[in-house]
Amino acid sequence: MKIYILDNGVIEIDSNRMVAMNTCATAKDKSPVHNWIQIPVYAVLIVHPQARILYDTGCHPEAMKGRWPANLTMISPYYYHENQRIENQLKIAGYKPRDIDIVVLSHMHLDHAGNLGLFTHADVYVQGDDFSHGLISVHQNPDTATHGLYVKADLEVPCRFIVVENDFELVPGVEILNLPGHTPGLLGLMAHLKYSGSMIFPMDALYQEANYGPPARSAGTLYDSLSFFKSIEKIRKLAKKHNAKVMYSHDMEFYKTLKLAPAYYD
């Protein structure tokens, strides 16, 4: 089994959305300077003897050209180079979109489900509570500014959706974990590699090392804060049990330490 990290560009954003209240005003500093930072966007390709699995699909290349609501292009603009498009990252690893058998979406937010349209032939695993919440969010009001981080076009891609509620083994050595909090439900992934050891990909259940702690710190974008902290402790227990490396989703300093495609973990 091999794991490739597919680089899909960067989002720029206020750091308070990653770690809540990290530039909070005080009596001594009533107007603190906010930090405008870059965070990575990536997907994960798992080449397994039984299937080629893509974990998340990144941002749509037309995100800043009308695909995303105007308010989100100001709050979290997305930037990429042509070679960072998901289909080109797959090519760097030696594959095409058509080669993917299974897509696992951590959740349906726009920076994770944006390229689902490339994989309509694949089986697509989604977390049921998040999928339902996303569908309701994008259909209950025509004003896209009310849709949160869901994009209607991402949720309406015609796919074979397989709805997941609980933890399970996807293929031998690859486990799916339900990690709610950031969204009503979220699918994390844990892989056990022969040489690189175990790796846990919690995606937005755990943005950054600063959120992990200990002590754990809240993210700025949450659906359910109690579940968020429970999920972090679930990750911590699994990491300890399996001596696993935790792969933060949007931590640029951590991301700089990773091997990116065409390099891989095995």
Short structural summary:
With 266 residues, the protein is an alpha/beta fold. It has helices at 70-75, 86-93, 128-139, 152-155, 209-212, 225-242, 252-255; strands at residues 2-14, 36-48, 51-55, 78-79, 102-104, 123-127, 160-164, 168-171, 174-178, 187-193, 197-203, 245-248. Helix content is 21%, strand content 27%.
Describe the overall structure.
- It is a single chain.
- This protein is of the alpha/beta class.
- It has one domain (2-15, 36-265): 4-Layer Sandwich (Metallo-beta-lactamase, Chain A).
- Helices cover 21% and strands 27% of the residues.
- It is built from 7 helices and 12 strands.
- It has helices spanning 70-75, 86-93, 128-139, 152-155, 209-212, 225-242, 252-255; strands spanning 2-14, 36-48, 51-55, 78-79, 102-104, 123-127, 160-164, 168-171, 174-178, 187-193, 197-203, 245-248.
- The strands form 2 sheets. The chain has a 7-stranded mixed sheet.
- The longest helix has 18 residues, at 225-242.
- The model has no long low-confidence stretch (mean pLDDT 97).
